[in-house]
Amino acid sequence: MSLWTAEDAAIATGGKAQGDWTASGVSIDTRTIQTGDMFVALKDVRDGHDFVAQALSKGAAAALVSRIPDDVPADAPLLVVPDVLSALQDLGRAGRARMTGRVIAITGSVGKTSTKDMGRVALSGQGRIHAAEASYNNHWGVPLTLARMPEDTDFAIIEIGMSHPGEIAPLSRMARPHVALITTVAAAHLEAFGAIEGIAREKGAIFQGLEPPGTAILPEDLPVTPILRDCADAAGAIVIGFGRDGMARLLQAKPHEGTLSCRARIAGETVDFVLQTSGTHFVLNAVGMLAALSAAGADLRRCGKSLGDWLPPRGRGAVEELAGIRLIDDAFNANPASLSAGLATLAGLDGGRRVAILGDMLELGEDEMSLHRAVADDASIASVDLIHTAGPRMRHLHDALPDAKRGLWAETASQLAKDAATLVAPGDIVLVKGSKSSKISVVVDALRKTLKQEDDECSIG
C-alpha cells in the first residue's frame, strides 16, 4: 500500500526529498517500525536523529529529518525539513485534506481511549476504519494518526487530549471532524486550569474545528453542560445531548453474568447493545459514541450489534478471573470522577469481600488532599469492605476511613506491592486504581505473580 510518495510528502511539508521512495506507513519508534515505514525523527527524551540509521537498517522506506546524521549516508532516502514536528503536523493536515470519509473527534476527562475503541469495534463491517493507536492524542499523536490515515478511509476516529490550556482547538482544527464527542468533564489537570469550568471551556474548544454543519455530542447532565452548549453554539454546531436524558438517552442497563444488556434511544431510534463488562460507567460513553456514529452516517443498529465484540483493555477496567479472585485492573489513570465510577463498579458486583487498592490521583491542584479525603464520603464506600492505599495523597483517604475498612497504607505503590500476598484472599473482588504516575500497576503485576504462584502450587499439590 502506498501512503506517501517522496513527491507527495515533499509537497505536503515543503521539504526536500532525497531519492524516489514510497512509504506504506509512518513510525516514530524503531522498536516497532515496519518495513516500508517513513521514520519520523522527533525530539523527545531522546533525539530521533540518533536512530535514523537503525530505522533504515530495519527497512524504513525513508526518514523525516531536519539534518542528516553523521552515521547516515548523504544519499540515503530522506525528507529534509527545517523542523520535524512541524513537518509531521503538515503531513497530518495533508492526510486529512485528501481523505473524503467522515471524521469523529473525541475528548473528555475520562474514557477517551476506551470510547474511541468502542467506536472502532462498533463500525466493524461498515467500510475502512482508521483510529488513533493507544492514547495518541497530543501535539504529535494527533498529526501522526492523521498522517497514517489511508486516503480511502470511510470513518476515522481521532482522540484529542490536553494537559494545559489552548491545546485542544489547534488539534481539532487539524483533524477537522464532522462530529465531535465529549465523554465527560471532571476534576483532572486542575493544576493547569484552577477550576472545572476552565476544563469545560478547554474541552468545548473541540467544537472549534468542526466542519460545517458539524455535530456536537455532549453529556447532558453535568453542572458544566451549559458551558459545553455555549461552546457548541458558538461553533454553529448541531447539538445532541446524551445521558439518562437528551436526544441520545440510556433506557436500561441490566447486569448479567459479567455483561450489561443495554437499550438506548438515539435520535428517535431504539438500539439494543451488550457490553462485555460490568462497569456501568462505560454505558453512557457507549451511548455517546453510538450517537456520534449515527451522526456520522453509520448504521446505528449494526453499530449496536458489533459493540458486543468490544472488550475493555488491560488497565482500563477489564475484569479477569485470577486464582480465586476477580480482579478489576483500572490502574491506567484516575481522577475523582473515574475513581467514583470504579468504586461503583466494585460495589455493584456480587460475590465475596470487596477490596479496593488505590494509588494517588495526580494533577488535582491545590485541593488535592481534600479531594482524596472526600473519597471516604463516596456513596459506594459503604459497600466496599477493605481499602488499601499507596502514596502521600492517599494517606488522607486512609486516615478518613472507618477503622473497619482501613487496610494497609504505604508511601509508594512498590512498597505496597511487597505485601501483595496479604492484600487479598480467595473469593475477593478487587479493584486496583490510581493515576498512571502513581505506579499502582506494580501492585497489579505483583498480585498476578503471587496468585499465579499460589494457583500453580495448588495444581501441583
Label this structure with key terms.
nucleotide-binding; cell wall biogenesis/degradation; Protein-Tyrosine Phosphatase, Chain A; Udp-n-acetylmuramoylalanyl-d-glutamate--2,6- Diaminopimelate Ligase, Chain: A, domain 1; ATP-binding; UDP-N-acetylmuramoyl-L-alanine:D-glutamate ligase; 6-stranded mixed sheet; alpha/beta; disordered C terminus; cell shape; single chain; 461 residues; 3 domains
- Strand content range: 15-25%
Care to count the β-strands?
A: 22
Q: Helix coverage percent of residues?
A: 25-40%
**Biggest sheet character:** 9 strands, mixed
Mean pLDDT: 92
Query: In the CATH classification, which architecture of the largest domain applies?
Result: 3-Layer(aba) Sandwich
Domain Mur ligase C-terminal: 320-435
Domain Mur ligase N-terminal catalytic: 24-93
Keywords: ATP-binding, Cell cycle, Cell division, Cell shape, Cell wall biogenesis/degradation, Cytoplasm, Ligase, Nucleotide-binding, Peptidoglycan synthesis
Subcellular location: Cytoplasm
How would you sum up this structure in a few lines?
The chain is 34% helix and 23% strand.
Would you kindly provide a written description of the structure presented here, covering whatever features stand out?
GO terms for molecular function: ligase activity. Keywords: ATP-binding, Cell cycle, Cell division, Cell shape, Cell wall biogenesis/degradation, Cytoplasm, Ligase, Nucleotide-binding, Peptidoglycan synthesis. Involved in cell wall formation. Catalyzes the final step in the synthesis of UDP-N-acetylmuramoyl-pentapeptide, the precursor of murein. This is UDP-N-acetylmuramoyl-tripeptide--D-alanyl-D-alanine ligase. It comes from Paracoccus maritimus. This protein is α/β, with parallel strands linked by helices and about 450 residues long. The chain has 3 domains: about 5-80, MurE/MurF, N-terminal domain (Udp-n-acetylmuramoylalanyl-d-glutamate--2,6- Diaminopimelate Ligase, Chain: A, domain 1, 3-Layer(aba) Sandwich); about 100-310, UDP-N-acetylmuramoyl-L-alanine:D-glutamate ligase (3-Layer(aba) Sandwich), CATH 3.40.1190; about 320-460, Alpha-Beta Complex (Protein-Tyrosine Phosphatase, Chain A), CATH 3.90.190.20. Helices cover about 35% and strands about 25% of the residues. It has 17 helices and 22 strands. The chain has a 9-stranded mixed β-sheet with strand order 9-10-8-11-12-13-14-15-16, sandwiched between helices. α14 links the parallel β20 and β21. α3 crosses α5, α4 (about 110-120) crosses α10 and α8 (about 195-205) runs parallel beside α9 (about 225-235). The protein is globular and about 70 Å long. The chain starts with a strand and ends with a helix. The model is unreliable at about 455-460 (pLDDT under 50).
